[in-house]
Design a protein that fits this description.
Elements lengths: L1 E5 L10 E5 L9 H8 L5 H9 L3 E3 L2 E2 L12 E5 L18 E4 L3 E6 L16 H8 L20 E7 L2 H12 L4 E9 L6 E5 L2 E3 L7 E3 L7 E10 L2 E8 L6 H8 L23 E9 L6 E5 L4 H11 L1
Parallel strand pairs: 8-15
Antiparallel strand pairs: 1-2, 2-5, 3-4, 3-5, 6-7, 7-8, 9-14, 9-15, 10-13, 11-12, 13-14, 15-16
Helix pairs in contact: 1-2
Length: about 325
């Protein structure tokens, strides 16, 4: 296949267009395989995605499906739309519930449903995109200043660095366990004893890439658990993190036989009107990463969690 045209005219979309005439060597070949020769810098799966979105044409008409067989002499055109991943780290204005902000630090109240960092399936509309739009310096910082994460469906207090010295200090403080993070959760069953510590290493579940699990090869993880109340087979608990492993509270409570309400990934069933995991980061304490002054922040839970908590704890 010989390219006979590359580039786009001024009125074309803001991405490159390539075209070529199918030669005898590609007669009878699959469309998606032929595109690899035309745009070898893209993965075959991305090229298949472009076919499905209508960015590939044969003799001027949309070409589909990816398995379509080519004929010699056909004119093939491809619009090189960037991958979703390559477009992930772009500013997107969004409303941020800011609890505190200065030149070095921002503390936000993250709503449930907001993804913190771009990942497969969530390349746009994340907190990172919002931070890039909020202040220019975010583009110069690792992960736009995000130093720790909350799961998509977990609400509550989050720290964000706004300068490189602050980001560096916050990462070190979290690693040294100098940032106190407290959560509230609703868990199935009666958590017993009322005061307990779960100290068990967490790593990727060998049976599922979506889950974490307690595994011998995992990283150290420790969670203090305090049962505030119990009613109707559901416990209202407060948890303090000593470490910050992915899904830590969810995994540790499930290990003890108390999965979080509505946490389907770890065995929790919906209850009390909760359709998402019943977990809220309610309090955070630390020294200011630059000035050293004592700071403490609390975020009121969203309405669904507030109502469910009240049904158990009053």
């Amino acid at each position: 296949m010989a390219e006979d045209e590359t580039g786009a005219d001024p009125g074309a979309p803001p991405f490159e267009t390539r075209s070529a005439v199918v030669d005898a060597a590609l007669h009878g070949q699959r469309l998606d395989k032929a595109l690899v020769a035309l745009a070898p810098e893209f993965s075959r799966s991305h090229l298949q995605h472009l076919i499905e979105l209508g960015h590939v044409r044969l003799d001027g008409a949309p070409a589909a499906p990816p398995a379509r067989r080519l004929r010699a002499g056909q004119r093939l055109e491809l619009e090189l739309v960037p991958t979703d991943e390559s477009r992930a780290f772009r500013p997107q204005a969004m409303a941020l519930a800011i609890l505190f902000e200065d030149e070095h630090l921002m503390v936000i109240d993250k709503p449930a449903g907001l993804v913190v960092h771009p990942a497969p399936g969530h390349w746009q509309g994340t907190l990172l995109n919002g931070l890039l739009a909020h202040h220019e310096a975010a583009a110069t910082l690792p992960r736009a200043g995000i130093v720790h994460r909350l799961d998509k469906d977990t609400s509550g207090v989050m720290l964000v660095g706004k300068s490189l010295p602050a980001v560096t200090a916050l990462v070190r403080m979290i690693a040294a366990r100098d940032v106190q993070r407290r959560y509230r959760a609703l868990a199935h069953g009666r958590v017993e004893p009322a005061e307990q510590t779960v100290d068990a290493p967490i790593g990727r579940d060998p049976g599922s890439r979506l889950r974490m699990a307690v595994v011998a090869s995992g990283k150290p993880a420790r969670t203090d658990v305090h049962r505030v109340a119990e009613r109707g087979g559901i416990s209202a608990v407060e948890c303090r993190l000593h470490t910050g492993r992915t899904h830590q509270i969810r995994v540790h409570l499930a290990l003890r036989g108390h999965p979080l309400v509505a946490d389907a990934l770890y065995g929790g069933a919906p209850a009390l009107g909760m359709a998402r995991q019943a977990l809220h980061a309610w309090r955070l304490e630390l020294a200011h990463p630059i000035s050293g002054g004592a700071l403490a922040f609390e975020a009121a839970p969203p309405p669904d969690f507030t109502a469910a908590w009240a049904a158990v704890a009053g």
